[in-house]
Amino acid sequence: MRKIISFYNILPLFVLTCLSACNDDDNVNNSDFFAATETLEVHASSTNIELDGNEPNKVVLTFDWTEARQMPEEYSVTYVTKLDIEGNDFASSVRTEEDEGVFSRSYTTEQLQKLLVEKWGRTYTKPATLQFRVLAKWDGGSKYAMPEVRTINVDVRPYKPIVFDADKVFLEGDAVGADKTQMTLTQENEYLYAALLDLKPGVLKIPVEFEGETNYISPESGDDVALSTDKIDTLSVVMRQKGSAVGWKITETGEHRVVVDMQAKTVAVYPPSKQLEPLTLEWRYNGSAAEDIITTTVTNLWLHGNINGWGTPVDGNFTPSLADPQVLVHKGTPISGSQIKFLIANISGKANNTYCFSPALLNGLRQQKTLTYGVSQAITGGADGEQRNSYFNVPSSTLVVLDLRNKKIVAYK
User: Fold this and answer.
1) What region, left, alpha or beta, does residue 325 occupy, with left being phi > 0 and alpha being psi -120 to 50 degrees?
2) Where does the SusE outer membrane protein domain lie (predicted)?
3) Beta carbons of 198 and 177 less than 8 angstroms apart
4) Can you count the helices (H) and strands (E) in the chain?
């Protein structure tokens, strides 16, 4: 007869075997894998925030989280945070893998403003809901450990963005005095403002009026900036509200040149010790004796060539730019014609041999170039034969600018 082994007879043996296996498993608590109790929690310092443009560097939102559940030593935990706009399902999130021991993440007014407006395209007209997620994940170990995930929502209203534009630009502050000074829009550039004025030690600030509002052009750093002693500072700038405006620390007394480029978003301040000067040349007529040196400070240019039949040069009516005296600007009556060069002086009977600016030589040889509206071309200057026989063809242009510092010419219709 076949023997039948009863289930009830082997059950005690099965239980003993299981208990023995558990005791031999390096004392691992299997609840970490199968019935884990999650401990991760996340909290926000506030759930409803209205950003204030007067305090760009203020920390306005902080998220804190607790440690996730304990795991055996063979596992290492990493905390990953994500911030996104509600509805994006974290597809456009700002992701950060946090350093060991870090259990918080903070955001300033400026950081949240840039994310909301520039990254996610939200406006100041209504709050936007941000979602902050913390993910605790484990690496190592012989078994998969389920991550812990927590998400929290915060409503944030951006402030009304300040447009970087101007109807009028001024200079004020204790470096200026009681009355503010209006800057001048330069002839050559619709985005370039300049001023030449006496300043004294103190802080210089740059208020801007645009569409009925006044804001301030300020150094990007967020603090008053001291001018360098060894170079000219051309600083990147931002637009700030009055309450957070900063400026430039003026240390010298005397005439300063201030240049504001609204397009490049830069400001340059030239103190008396580093003032820009007009171009001064020492030259001689082609063919004259070596000792017959002429010194000319270039503040105007005369047109010579087909435009005057190589006779008496035509006064170009150039004036130095307020932004840089080595930038000469003609604005008004159109200049046009073929074979034109620009003389630095008008001396009777000497036009053909006078120092001029014309197309840059190619391998030392003369060139004839045609100007295209809005496109700068290289120039060089000299009184030698090749330079004097280089010419520009100039289309009818009401604005012609020669930058003698950077050796460029550009014309506009």
Assistant:
1) alpha
2) 35-134
3) no
4) 4, 31
214-262 pLDDT, tens digit per residue, is: 999 999 888 999 988 877 878 999 999 898 899 999 999 999 999 999 9
Whether 168-274 shares its CATH topology with 279-412 is answered: yes
Which residue is associated with the tokens 């609204």? 262
Structure tokens belonging to residue 125: 């007209």
CATH 2.70.70.10 assigned to domain 35-157? The reply is no
pTM: 0.70
Contacts of 358 (CB under 8 A, 6+ apart): 341, 342, 367, 379, 380, 381, 387, 388, 390, 391, 392
Q: If 0-12 CB within 10 Å is exposed, 13-18 middle and 19+ buried, where does residue 274 land?
A: middle
| E strand segments, 122-274 | 128-140, 148-157, 168-171, 181-182, 184-185, 192-199, 202-204, 206-210, 213-219, 225-226, 234-240, 248-250, 254-261, 266-270
Helix, coil or strand: residue 41: coil
Does the domain at 168-274 match CATH 2.60.40.3620? Answer given as yes
